[in-house]
Amino acid sequence: MAAGQAGAGGNWPRERLFDDGWRFHRGDAAGAEQPAFDDAKWRTLDLPHDWSIEDLPEHPESTGESAVWADANCPARVGPFDRDLSEGKRDTGWVVGGTGWYRKKFPGPALSGGRHVEIRFDGVYMLSDVWLNGEHLGNHPYGYTGFAYDTTPHLRAGSENVLAVRVRNDGRNSRWYSGSGIYRHVWLTITGDVRVALWGLCVTTPEVSADQAVVNVKVQIENRASESRQVAVSVRVVDAAGAEAGRHEATETVAAGGQSETEHTMTLAKPKLWSPAAPRLYRAEVDLLAGGHVTDHLVTGFGIRKVEVDAERGLRINGEPVKLKGGCVHHDNGVLGAAAIDRAEERRVELMKANGFNAIRCSHNPPSPAFLDACDRLGMLVIDEAFDHWEVEKNPQDYHLYFKEWWKRDLDAMVLRDRNHPCVIFWSIGNEIPERIEPRGVETGKMLVEEVKRLDATRPVTMAIPFFWEPGQKHAWPEADPAFENLDVGGYNYQWQEYERDHERLPRRVIMGTESFPLQAFDNWQLVEKHPYVLGDFVWTAMDYLGESGIGNSQLSAPRMPFAPPPKTGERGDESGAELAQIFAPYPWFNAYCGDIDLIGRRKPQWFYRAVLWGISNLEMAVQRPVPEGRKELVSLWGWSDELRSWTWPRYEGRPLTVRVYSRGDQVRLLLNGKEVGTKAVSAGSRLSAEFQVPYAPGELRAVSLAQGRKVAELAFKTTGPPAKIRLHADRTRIRRDRRDLAFVSVEMLDAAGEFVPDAAVPVTFSVSGAGELAGAGSANPKDPLSFRKPRVRTYHGRCLAVLRPNGASGAIQLRCGAVGLTPASTTIRVG
At a CB cut-off of 8 Å and minimum separation 6, what does 399 contact? Predict the structure, then answer.
């Protein structure tokens, strides 16, 4: 969020991106922290980097990836996946962690004039140790918070320096795909000996209206000189067009080796307010002058907005009521792994916004700065979450081992770094904490809330509290009350049935659905719309992610044998009593597959239902994949039926297929090849859906939505032929030559008539030339573990994705995609 535009470092800017030219070795390397260590055989790469998404060496007995693997004969090792070597197993998506080393050589900047140099890491997973010229700068266990070291005492000004970083992702330490390595940006900061402290610039807007706003800027000044300094502090507030909106100056004497704070209050007339619909941004520019020289210059963006929450009127932003159409999101970028490349972070937010979401819960850790920057620009509301565990483990080697020593530093890092982001409207202190209702856990929660409020009292604090309990605890929701004691907003995971009962007991409690099952979308949203004290709903999840393999699976039951007893039944997410699929699916499932949006950014069946539920669409339709005789479809709690937007089902002629129609009208009519199949009523009582059994015949299946007898929408699926050609579509045809930019190219299978083939599984190959490289490629298939780095993919539901990254030069990137027997396609991305 904060970025320097000029510094006290001569020709160096205040903030220098320090991502390029690192050498990397996967594995341990004794003595690699020493400057004289020979790293000539290590490969060179640019950050952000995630080694767990990279291919493992192939086993000698491997036959490669050319075969179409079935679940039963998928090799134990393929691409980055290893069924036997992975310590995280299904939790982390069968990838491999271990130890990795990074080294970077760089010329040291001149240190005349009291200059100080700091190295800052936005995120390293995990257990990082950093050395400069053989001197150990420090250790940082948590993989999701930023940290910095003063390099000045060990820097060799004007000569070569060696920075070495060891990263250890060991044991079972995560419940999802974490990635491994320096997966976020690294920065070198150069200032004078008087500077703004790390994350020491804080902007709040205590008074907000359409007529005027009060902007308060606090500047934490750090004096590293050996004598006290008188510091002149100048603060300017500038709007997006560059026009000055306010200015304030102050003078402060800062003791040698000490810190001091100045406060600057400005009143802005007719402010441009920030909201999800109109995310207008300002920036605060700060200059420090000591001894007649500028010693530091720092800029941070912010937004002017007012957030209010109570049980009587719900959530308001700038006085306007807002219901949270939310989704939980993990931090990985699909085929790119955990690498937080700026454009990939931005694209996730764009996809959320384009699909009707207005809020994201960062599950279950602080996100990257680039992700929050994108949320600021695009108008996405955020729950910024600190921890998935406190003192009690969920995995043997997870953060619980470090919580007592590190919680304050990591919580402070999240709040101080992110408090200027207008998108952040809630802090969350934890998710499904095992000790949440025990006296020690309640005391810990109070301690965390107090620390958050000390640093930022402008936002409500929440925590995600689940419906399940650990062994020995009572299964009664009022037993959870101690966990809510210190929260401003109660986060409820999967417990919509308790909203109204809890409101009767505790009418002042504000409630937010922090996790919900896709199958319960209707029930959750009815209560959100009905009650102001229910702020919104966050589905688990908005987007597919790596790890927690197959929790959104739908699978077929085992074939029934004659005279076999009926299967046991249990509570499904929609309380239908239907038989459940297992929560986790076995290898080769590697992604969760529970998202409204799939791993490559396409809408999944549950999103189309949600689109009708949220009023985005008046009519949607899907066809369930035919279920073999004697078997049934089993859907997990987080899953959805295997539905497709397709009327192409060869070999099923004459067999009845299940067609589901979702509508905001009062009736839906279904026609096959122009003849009416039937008309059914839809309403809240039918959960806005109607189901038909339609004997399959090729042609056109058309749904019509009616309201009081009048057609309000229609939708048709047509039978397609086999794949005949390829279509490519890039999200952008011109990108920057900056390595932080990317182009995402969608690959689609078309028939001879140019119609999309919705269920095509076709092996395709890529070739890339020009001013870029293939950064990643893959499909949304949750159980087809292939390399994400090799230029060959099998399409899933007719699609796959290629991600192109510029190499730093201007020019063009050419991508060609081909498949045996199909007309190829190519596209060009301009780079400059």
Answer: 141, 142, 173, 387, 388, 389, 406
DSSP-derived 3-state class of residue 353: helix
**What is the predicted pLDDT for the residue at 585?**
85
At 336, the pLDDT band (50, 70, 90 cuts) reads: very high
Q: Which helix (H) or strand (E) holds 188?
A: strand 186-191
Instruction: Please choose, from the candidates 706, 712, 711, 718, the residue with its C-alpha nearest in 3D space to the C-alpha of residue 673.
Output: 718
**Cα–chain-centroid distance for residue 250?**
40
* The pLDDT of residue 158: 85
In tens, the pLDDT along 102-112 reads 999 999 887 77
* Residue 219 structure tokens: 């500047």
> Model-level pTM?
0.95
Are 520 and 574 in contact by the 8 Å Cβ rule? The answer is: yes
d(CA 606, CA 729): 24
Q: What is the largest CA-CA distance in the chain?
A: 93
Q: What are phi and psi of 712, to 5 degrees?
A: -115, -20
Interstrand relation of 259-269 and 43-45 (parallel, antiparallel or unpaired): unpaired
DSSP 580: B
Give the rounded distance of the alpha carbon of 551 from its chain centre.
Answer: 18
What is the spatial distance between Cα 714 and Cα 661, in angstroms, rounded to a whole number? 11
| Residue tagged 């539905």 (tokens) | 643
**Cis ω on the peptide bond leading into residue 185 (within 30° of 0)?**
no
Q: Are 14 and 8 in contact (CB under 8 A)?
A: yes
CA 659/CA 690 separation, integer angstroms: 8
Residue 826 CB neighbours (<10 A): 12
Say yes or no to pLDDT of 65 above 80: no
Reading the block at residue 18, the tokens are 């320090």
Could you tell me the pLDDT band of residue 558, with boundaries at 50, 70 and 90? confident
Termini Cα distance of the chain: 25
Q: How confident is the model at residue 478 (pLDDT cuts 50, 70, 90)?
A: confident
H or E segment to which residue 607 belongs: helix 605-613
Q: Which of 388, 328, 465, 394 is nearest to 144 (CA)?
A: 388
Both tokens of 240, joined, read 């997006």
Backbone angles phi, psi at 326, to 5 degrees: -110, 160
Residues 192-210 have a mean pLDDT of: 97
Q: What CA–CA distance (Å, rounded) separates 157 from 794?
A: 52
DSSP string, 503-540: HHH-TT--EEEEEE-GGGHHHHHHHHHH-TTEEEEEES
304 — pLDDT class (breaks 50, 70, 90): very high
The model's pLDDT over 158-191, given as tens digits with 9 standing for 90+, comes to 899 999 999 999 999 999 999 999 999 999 999 9
> Can you give the pLDDT at residue 582?
67
80 residue type, one letter:
P
DSSP string, 655-667: SEEEEEEEESSSE
- How many CA atoms are closer than 13 Å to the CA of 109, on its beta-carbon side? 26
Q: Are 361 and 428 in contact (CB under 8 A)?
A: yes
pLDDT at residue number 479: 81
Mean pLDDT in residue range 582-610: 94
Better-scored residue on pLDDT, 214 or 570: 214
DSSP character for 9? B
Compute the C-alpha angle 190/192/194, nearest 5°.
Answer: 125
Q: Mean pLDDT for the chain?
A: 93
Q: Do the bridges between strand 511-516 and strand 489-493 make them parallel or antiparallel, or are there none, so unpaired?
A: parallel
The pLDDT value recorded for residue 63 is 45
Q: How many secondary structure helices (H) and strands (E) does the chain include?
A: 8, 50
The total of other beta-carbon atoms located within 10 Å of residue 154's CB is 17
Burial category of 173 from C-beta neighbours within 10 Å (exposed 0-12, middle 13-18, buried 19 and up): buried
